[in-house]
């Protein structure tokens, strides 16, 4: 699979074009409120464009990717490798313009995990920013923000499989991973308190690039008109008041636990057996809730999509590392294309309300040095009903020797993970056992930092460190094998990572906890309802109590279940 011509050396940010307007208020909606409106509107305006909306909250510095220049979506294959062979995946590469010398916009290849990683690194290096280039216009913010690169997710299943290929860990029948090069995106306006700016990155190849049957400049003009129209619609105060009701126009969805309390007890007991035998020091045991998004094929009650629940979910959680992406469910053609109001049943949707940072990559402009920061979560207590009870729960977490022991195990695991890529002596733990409070729980969080070796690409660190130790246990390889046996159903994207990597190697990635997945029903090809699932779990050690661990699962997702059911 080819990469861009290596003579691409620079870019201009929001280069001049015939567009007359590049910023909008969109009725002062938040990003989460805007996303469903934006998706419907763009599909209505041009349902032939390969819109692949992606939103990252990015700890309060959000970005909305609109239409990727190139995207890679990775799917399981039916091919079973021989004992000594490398596993391959079906990688579907979609280009806005024709892929290099090929006449099609979509290419399919069968690649190993490492081959895909290397292709992404080669592609990123071809677009790598020359810090001294006069064409380079970068954001002035010193905080992590997206300015040009890849956005998407890498799921848990594929990373766990690669960590222990001999164990044949099952892959969910859905996209294993998806990353897109977003050179057309929305970002908060720089000079106003509210509003969004349209960014269109120009590269050396942009002058002759086509988007469908338009040149890129023509497409940006058309996109600007689409956004103008949406801005006008949302500026109507009566419409805006209706749209800002977080739970409007959604149907209650009830998710059912796959395990009963007794089922959880049995899995917990088996986990304890492995811990007592010395297989692991800690195992992250999770359980699943499942249901369906209702399907209604009429104008008064359109098909539900997971994105429609985003405003209410994010309003409730205010998760710093929340995000949303949607990709084709099996890499095939779109279904029901005539109904442009809905995410069709063949789309896979991933909606995260994650509070957990996996990695922040930073790059020094002067030296080109890359640094990394990770903040694993281990230790949870619910929020109290009163201030006094809330303070009590928080203090109990501070004083918990069990949670401290769990936390330090994961800190040591991540220090070892980073040690493979960091300069000798650069791995530090500046914060240990800090308490961070969220809408429904208190968490114990530690911080680890390191400086990367000069010959190490940040994407190699990201791929090589998955899955995150905070959601596997330690030792990691044995933990994922036990998890596969005890949970007996693939996690899919849950416990993977979602985020962005700029082409200069800066980026930010979450851990996909508090995360919902929705896709076509796998049990009935004629059932147009989308299957939806949600997971929760926690680290189990020999000191864990089954009842407390089970309750912790409920504490973590109780508010999400209530929002979906429209009880909050």
Plain-language structure description:
By secondary structure, the chain is α+β, with helices and mostly antiparallel strands. 28% of the residues lie in helices and 26% in strands. The protein is built from twelve helices and 26 strands. Strands 1, 2, 3, 9, 10, 13, 14, 15, 16, 22, 25 and 26 form a twelve-stranded antiparallel β-sheet that branches. Strands 4, 5, 6, 7, 8, 17, 18, 19, 20, 21, 23 and 24 form a twelve-stranded antiparallel β-sheet that branches. It has a two-stranded antiparallel sheet with strand order 11-12. Strand 9 and strand 10 form a beta hairpin. The radius of gyration is 23 Å and the shape is globular.
Bin the helical content: 25-40%
Counting DSSP E segments of at least 2 residues, the number of strands comes to: 26
| Structural class by SSE content | alpha+beta
Overall mean pLDDT: 85
List the helices and strands and how they pair.
Blueprint: E1 23-24, H1 31-45, E2 54-56, E3 63-65, E4 70-75, E5 89-95, E6 106-111, H2 113-126, E7 149-154, H3 156-163, E8 177-182, E9 184-188, E10 196-200, E11 210-211, E12 214-215, H4 216-235, H5 237-243, E13 256-257, H6 261-277, E14 282-293, H7 310-317, E15 323-328, E16 347-352, E17 357-363, E18 370-374, E19 377-382, H8 387-399, H9 401-419, E20 428-437, E21 441-451, H10 458-465, E22 473-474, H11 476-487, E23 497-502, E24 507-510, E25 515-520, E26 530-540, H12 546-564
Antiparallel strand pairs: 1-10, 2-3, 2-15, 3-9, 4-5, 4-8, 5-6, 7-8, 7-23, 9-10, 11-12, 13-14, 14-22, 14-26, 15-16, 16-25, 17-18, 17-24, 18-21, 19-21, 20-21, 23-24, 25-26
């Amino acid at each position: 699979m080819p990469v861009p011509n290596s003579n691409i050396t620079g870019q201009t940010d929001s280069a001049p074009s015939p567009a007359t307007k590049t910023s909008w208020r969109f009725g002062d909606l938040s990003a989460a409120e805007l996303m469903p409106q934006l998706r419907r509107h763009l599909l209505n305006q041009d349902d032939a464009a390969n819109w692949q909306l992606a939103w990252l909250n990015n700890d309060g510095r959000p970005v909305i990717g609109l239409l990727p220049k190139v995207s890679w979506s990775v799917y399981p294959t039916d091919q079973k490798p021989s004992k000594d062979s490398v596993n391959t995946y079906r990688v579907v590469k979609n280009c806005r313009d024709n892929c290099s010398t090929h006449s099609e916009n979509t290419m399919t290849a069968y690649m190993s995990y490492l081959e895909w990683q290397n292709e992404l690194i080669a592609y990123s290096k071809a677009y790598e920013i020359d810090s001294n280039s006069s064409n380079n216009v970068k954001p002035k913010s010193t905080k992590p923000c997206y300015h040009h690169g890849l956005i998407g997710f890498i799921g848990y299943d594929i990373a766990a499989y690669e960590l222990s290929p001999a164990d044949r860990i099952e892959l969910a029948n859905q996209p294993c991973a998806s990353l897109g090069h977003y050179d057309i995106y929305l970002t908060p306006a720089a000079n106003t308190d509210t509003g969004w700016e349209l960014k269109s990155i120009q590269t050396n190849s942009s002058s002759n690039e086509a988007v469908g049957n338009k040149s890129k400049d023509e497409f940006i003009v058309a996109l600007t008109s689409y956004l103008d129209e949406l801005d006008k619609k949302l500026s109507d105060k009566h419409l805006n008041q209706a749209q800002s009701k977080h739970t409007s126009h959604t149907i209650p969805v009830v998710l059912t636990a796959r395990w009963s309390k007794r089922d959880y007890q049995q899995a917990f007991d088996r986990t304890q057996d492995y811990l007592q035998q010395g297989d692991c020091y800690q195992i992250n045991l999770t359980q699943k809730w499942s249901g369906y998004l209702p399907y209604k094929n009429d104008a008064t009650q359109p098909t539900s999509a997971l994105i429609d629940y985003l405003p209410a979910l994010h309003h409730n959680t205010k998760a710093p590392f929340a995000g949303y992406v949607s990709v084709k469910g099996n890499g095939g053609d779109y279904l029901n294309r005539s109904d442009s109001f809905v995410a069709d049943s063949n789309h896979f949707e991933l909606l995260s309300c994650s509070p957990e940072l996996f990695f922040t990559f930073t790059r020094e402009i002067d030296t080109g040095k890359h640094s990394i920061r990770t903040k694993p979560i281990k230790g949870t207590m619910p929020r109290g009903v009163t201030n006094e009870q809330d303070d009590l729960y928080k203090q109990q977490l501070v004083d918990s020797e069990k949670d401290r022991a769990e936390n330090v195990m994961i800190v040591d695991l991540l220090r070892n993970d980073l040690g493979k890529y960091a300069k000798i002596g650069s791995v530090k733990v500046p914060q240990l056992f800090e308490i961070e409070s969220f809408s429904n729980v208190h968490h114990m969080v530690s911080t680890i930092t390191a400086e990367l070796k000069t010959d190490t690409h940040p994407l190699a660190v990201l791929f090589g460190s998955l899955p995150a130790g905070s959601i596997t246990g330690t030792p990691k390889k044995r933990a994922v094998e036990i998890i596969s046996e005890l949970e007996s159903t693939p996690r899919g994207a849950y416990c993977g990572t979602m985020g962005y990597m700029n082409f200069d190697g800066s980026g930010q990635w979450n851990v996909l906890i508090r995360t919902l997945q929705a896709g076509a029903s796998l049990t009935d090809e004629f059932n147009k309802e989308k299957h939806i699932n949600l997971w929760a779990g926690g680290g189990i050690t020999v000191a864990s109590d089954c009842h407390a661990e089970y309750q912790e699962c409920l504490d973590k997702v109780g508010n999400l279940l209530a929002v979906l059911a429209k009880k909050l």
